[in-house]
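Please, structure for the following, as tokens.
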Amino acid sequence: MAGVSSESLATALTALEAKLPTASLQLAKELFGILEMVDSSAGLRRALTDPSRNGDEKSALVRKLVGGKVSADAAEIAGGLASSRWASARDIGDALETLAATVVISVAENKSAVSASGITGLEELENELFSFNQAVASSHEVQRALSEPQASAAAKAALAEKLVPGASEEAKVLITQAVTQPRGIKATRLVERFAELAAKRQQRWIATVSVTRPLTSTQLTRLQAGLNALYGRELKVNVNVDPALIGGIRVQVGDEVLDASVIARLNELQRQLAG
């Protein structure tokens, strides 16, 4: 997905962020259901991605199709996607898939308690998705069963669930989606995509701190408290000693970089002089 479709997806993900703190698996299931409806109709996909049609008109079409069948949030999300511009008919389906998976991943992220093994809901979800793919890779018989076109979706879902006994509800939703609606790729590849989304979201809450010399325990405690306050949640802080910084500190949380190092200020000065 590139160009205008990437921009539309980015806009949709930003709008979705406000709903994620209270999102449920039901919302994700509804979005996956809308995706199935879109995938089943080439005419609908063409209508929703026709650049000559007004965005409000396309949004109204989707809302009419799903009205009364899904929640207001799901209808709003789908309508917003329909009103956006897409480079190809498949892109809107890919975006719906990404949004639905993001909701599932957020539900796992929002779990306040850690598991008995001491890992978070996001880590648990990633591990379960990885375990499923390992189980599939270890059995040619399972691979054939999951790719058998004559097998029912229910049969594939039941088989998939047996491969990861005791998996979380979040993992079950994503794995079931992958084996029943792989959308032209291998189920394991789609599970990989879901795992990549989970890993990317988890990375948002890991702070990589680069300093010129090791921090004392007091400095680390203060840094942890300051970053937690700045981002409104407890971050995992990884400290990297990098003498090349000369002085100061560089913090990266996900895609955001806070750079107060001497080398950064020198580079900025050089850019000003060059300009």
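Residues 204-274 form one domain. Residues 228 and 234 are 5 Å apart (CA to CA).
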